[in-house]
Amino acid sequence: MLVEASGMYYRSGDGREILDGTAGLWCVNAGHGRKEIASAVAAQLESLDYAPSFLLGHPLAFQFAERLADIAPPGLDRIFFTGSGSESVDTALKIALAYQRAIGQGTRTRLVGRERAYHGVGFGGISVGGLVNNRRMFTTLHGVDHMRHTHDPSRNLLSKGLPEHGAELADDLERLVELHGAETIAAVIVEPVAGSTGVLLPPRDYLKRLREIATRHGILLIFDEVITGFGRLGSPFASQHFDVVPDIITTAKGLTNGAMPMGAVFTSRDVHDGLMQGPEAAIELFHGYTYSGHPASCAAGLAALDIYQRDGLFTRAAELEDHWQRSLLELQNAPHIVDVRAMGLIAGVELSSRPNEPGARGYQLFLECFEKGLLVRASGDTIVLSPPLIIDRDQIDRIAQTLFDIVRKIT
Ligand SMILES: Cc1ncc(COP(=O)(O)O)c(C=O)c1O
């Protein structure tokens, strides 16, 4: 149980300080207990607690959209607000389908995702997602296909920086074009860095190649930046870090520093203008949520953005990246370690699985870390780390040392 939080630390139910190695759930990028956010939300609730976003608006939603457009990759300045990452993903997929139809490409109804991807828990997200346990109990959309994932331990173990091998895996989109016909494919969605599956870094030049193939075939490219958005890799979005501009970006989490539930979908002018062609009274996109652009969430988001910009948090991960990678790569000398994948302020530390007990070692490590005052997250037998961007070098060393000590001890 977690009962309080401030800065880099949680307090547990039994009164202990817990160093937050995960920014909550990849979302509290500016650290916990930010007073500016709490006051902005309180003030907003007192002056305008709620306003519908259907046919009506309120100023803060527009201010927030404009501020977001300023930090977005070039041209992605049209913004649709949602209530979470899952809603952002479903919204992006629906915008892609509606756009293709609006521009006379109505045969493009197929969506392409990737194995091992996580895109939230809506039916759209699990359909393009590639995690078997998130899919096997439920039905998924038809007309969805998947590219292969990019994890290649035979060639890329313990890389410092991006994996050297695997750019050609982007050609899997070409394979799906040959199989289905480009004129049936609306969009392809990928996480620039796959997070929840255990942190898989994109092979060098993979994303550029994917962009080229998608463009060549009129397929929209969606980057799911729910984790990578808002400074995780050392720039506002991964798109800027990798210098690849998609057509649509999905975000949530760090958007409000995790303090209020909210997501945002960024689209290019082309996508927006292609879709929004109807007369004044027409509804071009039959989609939207009661809580789209909620005033209190907008207030939280604006306050979070002020902090990110004032405190230089969008570039902080780039400043710390070298230290982060070096500290964590030390773990390769500890027992049970198969791979360490680190960039920006994100990392996956993969442990070997116990025979017939997948996930057991990761779970044990999670528990022992918590006992020792460190919050990490286990994705199967991979420990995933994504601390608040306000972390300092000593705290990074403490994370690495705690993991090192525990991993030597566990069975
Ligand atoms: C890449 C990605 N997309 C979507 C989601 C879903 O976000 P939410 O849990 O806010 O619905 C997540 C959550 O971790 C995510 O990592």
From TrEMBL:
EC code: 2.6.1.18
Listed Gene3D superfamilies: Aspartate Aminotransferase, domain 1, Type I PLP-dependent aspartate aminotransferase-like (Major domain)
EC primary class: transferase
UniProtKB keywords: Aminotransferase, Pyridoxal phosphate, Pyruvate, Transferase
Keyword Transferase: yes
A GO term, aspect molecular function: beta-alanine:pyruvate transaminase activity
Keyword Transferase: yes
Domain of life: Bacteria
Entry's family note: Belongs to the class-III pyridoxal-phosphate-dependent aminotransferase family.
Protein name: Beta-alanine--pyruvate transaminase
Organism annotation: Sphingobium vermicomposti
Lineage of the species this protein comes from: Bacteria, Pseudomonadati, Pseudomonadota, Alphaproteobacteria, Sphingomonadales
